[in-house]
Design brief:
The complex is a heterodimer of chains A (about 425) and B (about 260). Chain A has a single domain, classed as Luciferase-like domain (TIM Barrel, Alpha-Beta Barrel), CATH 3.20.20. Chain A has 14 helices and 11 strands. Chain A has an 8-stranded parallel barrel, surrounded by 8 helices. In chain A, strands 5-6 form a two-stranded antiparallel sheet. Chain B is α/β, with parallel strands linked by helices. Chain B has a single domain, classed as Alpha/Beta hydrolase fold, catalytic domain (Rossmann fold, 3-Layer(aba) Sandwich). In chain B, about 35% of the residues lie in helices and about 20% in strands. Chain B has an 8-stranded mixed beta sheet, sandwiched between helices. The longest helix of chain B is centred in the C-terminal third of the chain and has 22 residues. The radius of gyration of chain B is 17 Å and the shape is globular. Chains A and B meet through α10 of A and α6 of B.
Chain lengths: ~425, ~260
Amino acid sequence: MKFCWFHLMPYRYLPEDFEEKYRSVWVDVPSKLFDPIKANELYNEYLDELEFADEVGFDGICVNEHHNNAYGIMPSPNITAATLTRRTSNAAIIVLGNSLALYNPPIRVAEEFAMLDCISGGRLVAGFPVGTSMDTNYAYGVNPATLREKYYEAHDLVMKAWTEPEPFAFNGKHNQVRYVNIWPRPLQQPHPPVWIPGGGSVETWEWTAEKNYVYCYLSYFGYKRGIDVMNGFWKKMEELGVDDNPYRAGFLQLVCVAETDEKAKELYEEHVDYFYKKCLHVYEGFAEAPGYRTIRTIKSGALAQVGAAASRFRQRLTWEDYIEQGYIIAGSPETVVENLRKAAEGLRVGHLMTLLQIGSMPRDLTMKNTEMFATEVAPHLQDMWDEYEDHWWPQALPQAERAAPDETRVIAAD
Amino acid sequence: MTTTQEMVTVQVGPISTSVQKAGSGDPLVYLHGAFGYKGWPSFLDTLAEQYTVYAPLHPGFLDAEGINEIDDLLGLVLYHQDLLDALGLDKPNIVGQYSGAMVAAEMSAICTHTTGKLVLAAPAGLWLDDNPGVDYNTTPHIESRSILFAEPDSEIARSVLPDTDSDEELGLQIIERVQSLSAVAKFLWPIPEKGLRRRAGRIRNETLIVVGDNDKIVPSAHGDVLASEIANSSVHVMKDAGHLFILEQPEEFARVVSDFLG
């Protein structure tokens, strides 16, 4: 089992009455609520946390892309990833990812990912989400009717840019480029592993199977609901004649570890509340632009994670509900190990992405959660799926051959 | 008086299109908008007394095929031009509502000799920074009536968007809404100004722009701006009228249209 440490980078200073006063944490949350001085502290704190996850032995560190969003102040995950290439040395750098249809031309993604791969010595995982409707249709104005075809075309362009050693022309419907010829190329050959974050649509499952990519179900609903979705995923893999290697899949789970179950509630409850009641307070009208999901997917009954009904429902949840319904896995190391094992087995996932900084959780508590997870939880679970090979993990240069920051250089102060 | 409609199917390039047809006389084409497109609106009965009315269903709506065959606004205009040819119509008068009005205006701006008189009801196609109209794409389905009708609880409003306690029925309504709004959004997203304001000066047709004084989607100010760009045009403002005044005030709208067409 691979353990990955995922940061959303939430803004921790939303007003107490945020969810009464404002209709949405996303799209039209006014940026007057954003204090850049506080953000100076937040970004540095969050980067420390990601670096710490590498130090305590997490296999991967994950960053992602959101726009107009107060729970994810990371519109450019590549900037975050770039700092991590220099300040971490072991963990895979998992960018989950770049929403391809937002880049014009998407060659930019091929270039930046190739840079990250070269600087990090081949530690990059390339994530290509379609992007949520809030990010793509509302914040960036991309047409929902053509978002997916634009995404698939951008994917083809990026893959060809990575793998074609000679300049070529690309005559697409959404991108026309006379000379595609990226410098640099990625270090990993033929290209970094590709992971596709998704929300449970059938088309995406079929496509990831066809391309032999990892499918990551990034849900905030937790493992109990996730199991239904992932059952659908594995059933589809079987139908398509694809093997059931658990490393084909990733799943995001919120986790809170403390000395005892009681202590976990005492330490983490307010931050989990902040996450579910403020961070996921999204106006129903933004949940899904018309055409964002195909009629086929809507008919298959996949649920939107945001929206009025979901939001109202979550306003009533208590700590006990979060645990009972699987939104979070929380408690003593023993409790967490037991439930995570159940979750990983039920979901059949080899790449477990843990959310250990949750909502308003401050640095010290995040570090504690991270360290306890690394020392008292992960060791009990890391041999899960040992009988399978992870074909989708970065193939970095051996440590000894990898360039690193020159630590001997000293800049003299005046 | 109510008419009997006949269903005609015509092949427009790769797209098979269903057209409702009724009445007799010179041809008149009705192009529907994003909402209130189902069935045969009663104002067409009045017009069918004087005209042969053709009402095609836009690709992507209900069971109409072909939306994936049309890539952009130019493709949409050419599809409609080919539709007129397929129906064998020479310079028909066109009544369009919202996106249908935008198509009628664009057709007349781009192919200047193929359309007759124009009635543009609550026309899409402009963007006014200080008066853009509500973003109906983000209005939850169950609140739609309040942005479409001056009287959201009227009988006609309830017949267009019925209340329901059934999850299944609600699900079907939402799927239908997604389909139709997506077919419109393909050409209007995220802001409906796609160059009509610059092209409108090419429209030579005699044009009547009809706006509702209480239209939340196309504020009546849009009518004056569009009229200022079209040489041979005038504006009629419907009183106590929401976005779907064609359905809320069918007699009055039909009278205004008949008077204009002469």
